[in-house]
C-alpha cells in the first residue's frame, strides 16, 4: 500500500509541476516576440538620392518605447537587432505607436536598402522589413542596377512581375533569381546554390520579368547577378509570401 500511495502521489505532483512550468514558460514569453500585426510599406519603391520617403507602418501593441525603424543596406544579414544597429544609416523610435507614418531621407549613395523594424534597441530582434532602391538621377540608360516590384506581399503561386535596370555591358549570362532572404548576400555562386527560380537578362539593360511566387510561406529576395560563373550580386529586393 505504501509503495502504491507513493507512486500515485509522485505522478500527481509531477503533473502539477509540469503544468506550472508550462504556464511559467507561456507567461514569460515576451509579447513583442510575435510578428502578427506588423507591416511596412511605401507609396513607391524607387527614390533619388536625398529624396523624402514616407513610410507607413503598423506595429504590435506593448512594444518598448525604444522599438525602432531604421534604414539598413540590404546586404546586411537580417534578423539580429544589434547587427542592424551597427549599420543603420538613419532611424526613428516608435515611442509606443502601433500605426502611423514616418518621413526619412533617401541615402545619398545609390543602391538597395531596407526599412527594418525592431522590437527594442537593446539586443532585440528584427520584426519586419521592406526594400527600396536609390537610383542616381544620371543612372538612366542601363547605368544603374535596380529591381522594382509594384507590391512586396504575394500569395503562394501568385504571378510576380518585376521591372529592372542593369548596367550596360554585362555578359548575356547575367541573371535575376528568387533566393531565400536567409541566404547571405554578395556572392553569385552562393545565390546560384540556393535559387528557387531564375531568368537570364541576355544583355538587356532594362525590361520586365514574370516569376511565380514560391509555394512555401516565407521571406525571399529577387537578386540580380552580373554573370553565371563566379560573379557577384549587384542588387536585390525583398518580398513576402504569406
How would you sum up this structure, described in words?
The protein has 242 residues and is α+β, with helices and mostly antiparallel strands. The protein folds into three domains: 2-31; 34-134, Sandwich (Immunoglobulin-like); 146-241, Macroglobulin (MG2) domain (Immunoglobulin-like, Sandwich). It has three helices and 16 strands. The strands form four sheets. A five-stranded mixed beta sheet has the order 2-8-7-4-5, covered by helices on one side. The chain is globular.
SSE diagram, text form:
Blueprint: H1 2-28, E1 39-42, E2 46-47, E3 52-58, E4 68-73, H2 81-87, E5 90-93, E6 99-105, E7 111-118, E8 126-134, E9 146-149, E10 153-154, E11 159-165, E12 175-180, H3 188-194, E13 197-200, E14 206-212, E15 218-225, E16 233-241
Parallel strand pairs: 2-8, 10-16
Antiparallel strand pairs: 1-3, 3-6, 4-5, 4-7, 7-8, 9-11, 11-14, 12-13, 12-15, 15-16
Structural features:
242 residues, Immunoglobulin-like, 17% helix, alpha+beta, 39% strand, single chain, disordered N terminus, 3 domains, 5-stranded mixed sheet
* CATH architecture label name of the largest domain: Sandwich
Q: How does the overall form come out from the CA principal axes?
A: globular
Structural class: alpha+beta
Mean pLDDT figure = 83
Instruction: Report, as a whole number of angstroms, the end-to-end distance.
Output: 58 Å
Radius of gyration: 23 Å
The H-and-E topology, N to C, reads as HEEEEHEEEEEEEEHEEEE
> Approximately how much beta-strand content do the residues carry?
35-45%
CATH topology of the largest domain: Immunoglobulin-like
**pLDDT < 50 runs, ≥5 residues:** 1-34, 138-142
